[in-house]
Write a structure and sequence with these properties.
- It comes from Ferrimonas gelatinilytica.
- This protein is α/β, with parallel strands linked by helices.
- The protein has 9 helices and 9 strands.
- Helix 4 crosses helix 5.
- The longest helix is centred in the middle third of the chain and has 14 residues.
- It is globular and about 50 Å long.
- Bound molecules: SN-glycerol-3-phosphate (G3P) and magnesium ion (MG).
- The site of magnesium ion (MG) has 3 residues, from strand 2.
């Protein structure tokens, strides 16, 4: 079972910052998950459309300039990193699940992936591109059919099989609240992996291991890794 650090190791470091990504590596995560928006044509790593929740700034992320963004505190003196900065920091040492959160993020993603593959030692297998916005995933898949696509669902994953099939998706990502053994078995028959978010409670981690999910998004990679080891996974 893959352990994916949700917004980095975000229980112990400010979410979606370089510190959270470095800590996720130290905590032995298989992959990091991060959220991206677009600022001046560049992808930046932040969850919300608005700055208020996680930074010292206010207003819409996409109304900022990169220079303005670089002055904000994203927690503990950390900055809002660009995706390129995270790629440089990770430099091929773990997989990256890039969640396309902001509209218009598929366009700048494609050249960035190519650049990271050419100059930072990433293998295309290491990318997992996900989004609740399925048309952006279709755009990525059309441009790079070999890339792994994760179809995200909020709430009950209606038509998950059709959507995953249309996008030739690697995985379906859903809230743990909506997972059951039937969905898991059906998806396994179809050859699609199931990743669940956001699983932090140790008893819920154990439940997901028992169900046999392919991966979990967690804010606690180290604690989750220890639980998996104790269950010999
Ligand atoms: O990608 C899994 C999870 O991150 C999706 O929800 O809101 O945390 O980005 P959110
Ligand atoms: Mg996310």
């Amino acid at each position: 079972m893959k352990i994916i650090a949700h917004r980095g190791a975000s229980a112990d470091a400010p979410e979606n910052t370089l510190a959270a990504m470095e800590l996720a590596l130290e905590q032995d995560a298989d992959a990091i998950e991060l959220d991206v928006h677009c600022v001046e044509g560049e992808l930046v790593v932040i969850h919300d459309r608005y700055l208020d929740h996680t930074t010292s700034g206010q207003g819409l992320v996409h109304n900022m300039t990169l220079a303005q963004l670089a002055t904000l505190d994203a927690g503990g003196g950390q900055r809002v990193p660009t995706l390129w900065q995270v790629m440089q920091c990770v430099a091929g040492r773990c997989d990256i699940n890039i969640e396309l959160k902001g509209l218009g993020t598929a366009d700048p993603l494609l050249p960035l992936l190519a650049r990271a593959e050419q100059s930072l030692g990433f293998n295309p297998e290491q990318w997992l591109i996900s989004s609740f916005h399925h048309p952006m995933l279709a755009q990525v898949k059309q441009a790079r059919p070999e890339l792994k696509i994760g179809t995200l669902f909020a709430g009950c994953p209606l038509r998950y099989a059709e959507v995953a099939s249309e996008l030739n998706a690697h995985s379906v990502h859903l809230s743990a609240n909506f997972l059951d053994a039937e969905l898991l078995a059906d998806s396994r028959r179809r050859g699609t992996k199931i990743y669940v978010y956001t699983v932090d409670r140790p008893d819920e981690v154990a439940e997901m291991i028992e169900l046999g999910v392919d991966g979990i998004f967690t804010n606690y990679p180290a604690r989750t890794r220890a639980l998996c080891h104790s269950q010999r996974l």
